[in-house]
Design a protein that fits this description.
The chain has 8 helices and 3 strands; from the N terminus they run αααααααββαβ. It has helices at 3-32, 35-61, 76-105, 113-139, 143-168, 175-203, 210-221, 255-270, and strands at 228-237, 240-250, 275-285. A 3-stranded mixed β-sheet has the order 1-2-3, with helices on one face. Mean pLDDT is 79; it is low at 289-294.
Amino acid sequence: MNRFTSAKLAGILGILGNLFLLIIKGIIGFISHSHSMIADAANSASDIFASLMTYIGGKIANKPFDDDHNMGHGKAEYLFSFLISISMIIVSINFLINSFKSLITGETFTFSWTLVVVCIITIITKLSLYFYTKSLSKINPSLLIISNLKDHRNDCIITTFTLISALLGLLHIYWFDSLIGIAISIWICYTGAQIFIESYNVLMDKSIDEKHKNIILEIIEKYPEIMQINHFNSSPVGYKYLIFVTIFVDGNMSTFESHKIADKLEKELNKLDFVYLSIIHVNPIIIDAPEKLKKSHN
């Protein structure tokens, strides 16, 4: 199963699971007037949108490169993750306001054991989706899959607190319900902001991180013929990176020999799972002293 097939499968399962939960949580939440359950239902609605975006984004990102998109369609994964994050933030702000209003006005809800049953069903469903999606993320760590994984994990925690607030209704403690509604809204907003930042960084062509850059530099350092490294640039292509490096070799070396080194280096770098394509430019350097020049990069 490849990366994008996994993303589509995670999306489909997420849609079906969250649609089921939205229906039962929405009905019980509005009947009982439980703000935490209504917020939980809204969270499921945002999860459906997230799963739908996961499916569509995975399908588009799986398309091969063409004349109009020479580097493929990998960024669709991050574009749709970006949309997911915005929807999560909007939903969370709306319910944060409503939960604050209910806390201030002291609104109550009608306790029902059905509330407890719905919470338990939600936790079991979400735990099942969480563990299955986690197994997919270990094989293919797509941002879309990881976004769904975080949603399922968050929902388990959120609904656990919703369950607590429902049980407190037996003791006529209603303020906790509004408090949980506020907490759920803040959690959704925080998670959405995290996904927003990660997606934004890729869409804005953020450079490769130091950890992966050092892996590439360590490989280059193994080539004794390469005397200097310059112009190390990178650009994200989906979840991988396009790497540009200028290397300097002995100016007395033939063009054939110098490009043979570059070709060998490119092939080695292209084998890295985080490299989409590496492009090595070769420049000659004149050696005035017998000692080899110290390698440098920027």
